[in-house]
Amino acid sequence: MFKILYKKELSPGIFHFDIEAPKVARKAQAGQFIVLRVNEQGERIPLTIADFDRVKGTITLIFQVVGASTAELSLLNEGESILDFAGPLGQPSEVEPDMGTIVCIGGGIGVAPVYPIARAMHEAGNKVISIMGARTKDILIFEDRMRAVSDEVMIATDDGSYGVKGFVTTALQQLVERGEKIDQVTAIGPGIMMRSVVEATRPLGIKTVVSLNPVMVDGTGMCGGCRVQVGDEMKFACVDGPEFDGHLVDFDSLMSRGRMYREQEAEAKEHRCNIGLGRK
């Protein structure tokens, strides 16, 4: 059993959990994920590691309630435990010294998984420019943490309530226009956001890495739900990734498959809510 040491609702439907998992924390690296199961009746949920503390033995998760399982997870409180917590899984981010200027882009809840990558890049001595995007200022997360590991932080909000009015690509374009030499972009967020970033960097020849954690299901490569066309090869996001060369990813098929089960997910969430999510 894995105890919840800290819980906070950052904004409606978005939760921060610190989980006691010393063995996972000891091995965790930027870019990796875990798979958890709330209870015996629960399904496996892959979630990217938002932070880890090897000394305290904790793993930080940031997740959004989008279906029945994340809704059930959100009902757990500090002091309660999660049944299964496996990890770290997936290939870690490629982080080396002297990589140059790295632009780390997080859209929405994608800011959380991009944070440990930005930190690792910063600790390796690279220049880190972080771009954070959100619909509005009120739902922006991890700003203080991102500022602590970045040489510069740019913020873009859809409604202009904070930072640049527009999208993360608006801020990225500003960097390009001011003549910033960008050696790599790492983008994490909704599929449509990552595709927009890729299309913005493609004509500029800027290496762009995307993390396809949102498409994972069982996290072990057995279900095939996270298969993705990368260039001429078929890959599995959970075991081959979750990070890939964004310029080679077939986003059209990826996003189409991601929409396949929305109706079933909505029905499952409604069913769980009708029976009280199995809790008394």
The CATH class of the largest domain turns out to be Alpha Beta
What ranges have pLDDT less than 50 throughout 5 or more consecutive residues? none
Report the biggest beta sheet as strand number plus sense, adding barrel if it closes: 7 strands, mixed
Quaternary structure: single chain
Number of E-type strands: 17
Strand content: 25-35%
Q: Roughly how much helix do the residues carry, as a percent range?
A: 25-40%
CATH architectural arrangement of the largest domain? 3-Layer(aba) Sandwich
Strand neighbour order, sheet with most strands: 12-11-10-9-13-14-17
Number of helix segments? 9
Radius of gyration equals 18 Å
CATH topology of the largest domain: Rossmann fold
Whole-number tally of structural domains:
2
Give the terminus-to-terminus CA distance: 20 Å
**In the CATH hierarchy, what is the superfamily of the largest domain?**
Nucleotide-binding domain of ferredoxin-NADP reductase (FNR) module
